[in-house]
Amino acid sequence: MRGRGIPRVLLFVMALALANSSAVLAQLNASGPSVNLNAVINPRLAVAVSPGTVNFQLFPGGGVSRGDNPLTITTAWNLRAGTNNVSLFGYFSSAAAALTNGGSANIPSSRVRGSVNGGPFIAFTQNSPFGAGRSLRIFRQPIRRANRIGQRNDTLNLQINTVGLLLPFGTYTGVLHIQARAI
Amino acid sequence: MTALALLAPRASAQVNSNAAGVFLQAGRAEVIRVAALPGTVNFALSPNGIAGGSSAITITTSWSLIPSVQDVNLYAYFASSAAALTDGLGNNIPPANVLASVNGTAFAPFTGNGAFAVGSSMLVFTERIIGNNKNKTRSDILDMQIDTTGLGLPAGTYTGVLLIQAQAL
């Protein structure tokens, strides 16, 4: 009888082969597609200033008057790689009339001065991307990889020097613009 | 005579050889295919919040399987558990911050384990194969979100590849 039929050893091997064969066939991995994901974070550069109004008590005969409150300026940014610096400027729309009484009497920007973070008072006569001859640079912050996301606070004290202007009595108003640029 | 005497017993005796077993397997080819559209999903990211993808992904899975297959699983996954998307400058969005909703269900992050990736995978579906679905095509919708909350990512363009792959077991 041992010479007839399929030997047990062979049956075992065949069964093993069948089992292995089934296992291989039963797992099938499809080669799948891929979907490209593109996500963009746009650069951000924001400036906030407080308070929104600064009052000056001007001297009738001329003199240097300080604003009643310093400005606190918060500059926040999130910038792309390749941005080299952030600069913040204060400026007036007109060099001839930073403040005006609405008539013909004006206080030019050269008579308005600012002190940044306790530094010396400097007239608004500088050039900037936003105004030539009527600006004051508040800071220039180099940007590196570590500070592409950043924020800083600065203080700006203001003065008005009316010496020699011979201004008539009245109320003089103006708008100081504060704007940042990343480049 | 001698020769005849020798041959005679062999002619009259019956000896059977062993029977060699040969497995015959006549199986049709198994097929499982996956297609996904669109090929690109765009996100306008908030620096610190959740942004939805520009389009949902429609995934079509087709199969023709042998009776021994029990399940078809479809996975979506990222190759890296650290960086699903990157700006190429060392700033990454990990799979844990990429979420997907399958067929309108709740959004969940790509943090699962799958057949093709550990910790960066999501099971899109499991379908048990029974008699009437050995040959089938089905479509599933994958909506995607990216949550940048707390990542502190700088501005830039982040790119990545979502892989989609099926497995029949």
Short description:
The complex is a heterodimer of chains A (183) and B (169). Chain A contains 1 helix and 14 strands; from the N terminus they run H-E-E-E-E-E-E-E-E-E-E-E-E-E-E.
Tell me what the structure shows.
The complex is a heterodimer of chains A (183) and B (169). Chain A has a single domain, classed as Immunoglobulin-like (Sandwich). Chain A has one helix and 14 strands, in the order H-E-E-E-E-E-E-E-E-E-E-E-E-E-E. Chain A has one helix at residues 8-26; strands at 28-29, 34-41, 44-50, 64-66, 71-78, 85-91, 99-100, 106-107, 112-116, 121-123, 126-128, 131-142, 149-161, 177-182. In chain A, the strands form three sheets. In chain A, strands 3, 4, 5, 9, 10 and 13 form a six-stranded antiparallel β-sheet that branches. A four-stranded antiparallel β-sheet of chain A has the order 11-12-6-14, with no helix packed on it. Chain A has a two-stranded antiparallel sheet with strand order 7-8. The radius of gyration of chain A is 37 Å and the shape is elongated. Residues 1-13 and 21-27 of chain B have low confidence and may be disordered. The chains are: A mainly beta (183), B mainly beta (169). At the A-B interface, helix 1, strand 1 and strand 2 of A face strand 1, strand 2 and strand 12 of B. Strand 1 (28-29) of chain A pairs antiparallel with strand 12 (156-168) of chain B.
N/C terminus separation of chain A: 95 Å
Instruction: Write down the overall geometry of chain A.
Output: elongated
SSE arrangement of chain B, N to C: HEEEEEEEEEEEE
CATH fold field value of chain B: Immunoglobulin-like
Indicate the radius of gyration of chain A in whole angstroms.
37 Å
The beta-strand count of chain B equals 12
The major β-sheet of chain A equals:
6 strands, antiparallel
Count of separate DSSP helical elements of chain B: 1
Number of domains of chain B: 1
The CATH topology of chain A is what? Immunoglobulin-like
Low-pLDDT windows of residues of chain B: 1-13, 21-27
- Bin the strand percentage of chain B: 35-45%
Structural class of chain B: mainly beta
Characterize the main sheet of chain B.
6 strands, antiparallel
